[in-house]
Structures are given as C-alpha cells and as structure tokens.
Design goal:
Number of domains: 1
Strand order of the largest sheet: 1-2
Distance between the termini: 14 Å
Helix content: 25-40%
Strand content: 15-25%
Number of helices: 2
Number of strands: 2
Radius of gyration: 16 Å
Amino acid sequence: MTNSMKPLSKENTCKFCFYVTYDNVGFYVASGGKPDHSHHPQLKEDHIEFPKRFLSDENIDLLNDVRDSNACNGVAINLIHHQTGKMLSC
C-alpha cells in the first residue's frame, strides 16, 4: 500500500463484493459475491493517535475486533465516530 491507501497494483486490491438487485418489492442483497476482505491496511494498536484513556474498554475491544477482521482503517474510524462522536486519525 502507498501512503494514500491505494493499492500498488490490481493484484493488491480487495476482492470483496456483494450484489444488490431489486424486484417489485424493492432493493435487496442477492446471493453470491465474495465475502472475504484482503489487502487492507491494518489498524495497529500503536497507530491510534487518540489517547486510549478517552475510550471505553468496550470501544477498545471494538477497535481490536475491526483490526482482527482485516477491515480498513476507515471502518474503525467510522465505528468509533458513530459510537462516541470522537474522530480517530489514520
């Protein structure tokens, strides 16, 4: 990954996808797609620039779970912002 979080090549992109379709009732997620994430930058514990003492144990556990799921930093930032209203930096 580069500093801009863009992959260095097409082989290093995440292949996760899901299909959204619609019928006469409305939109829905269809079966198929690829449920696995890969090639995301990891959220490392020492890269959280927001002091841990301001986060609850529950939110620290949430960040660790996001890191362990190989999701990108943006997911963790959005979750903490939604939970606490506080913004973490990448």
